[in-house]
Sequence to fold (180 residues):
Amino acid sequence: MNQLKKGESKKLFNIPSSPKIKEVGVSPTLADATAEAEVLSSVVLSEDPEKLRQLHLRDFVFPETKAIFRILRKMRNRREPIDLPSVLRHCVEKGMEREVTLEILGASPASALFSSQLYRLKELSNKRIIAKATEKLNEGKITIEQFKQLTQKLNTEEGSSLPEPLPMEELFTDESIVSI
Fold:
């Protein structure tokens, strides 16, 4: 693992072969390599394959975390044990760099943090879905009703509310915008 110098923060995927955020084609505010790695690390630390049922491929942006998620899913489907040595072996066999894999699988300090890590990952995933739906709405590719249907399908915690587009009457008005 990389040693941190005084004043540095931990950044995942510092290894040269790892992609930059621009390369994955997502706004930096909608992707977080640490969040993705922590969730996967928690799954491996807990050795609980059932936790994978709460995750989807769309929750991951980075090629490395997507690859590990796919490997974990295959291992679960084959009823193989999901532990660090087994997962590391499968990742290396698939051509992943050992250092990158260990960095990702060592990202979470404890499997007990899975729920909060999952919440953070799902929040980012939902924001990406809403951003794409908003883009389609703005381009006229979907209607407001379709937008509502897309956003209502998202998994959210109780009490949270998803953004909804403004009604057409409010969009096309002669009133000037005062302030937010």
Remarks:
- The longest helix spans residues 114-138.
- DSSP finds seven helices and no strands in the chain.
- The mean pLDDT is 81.
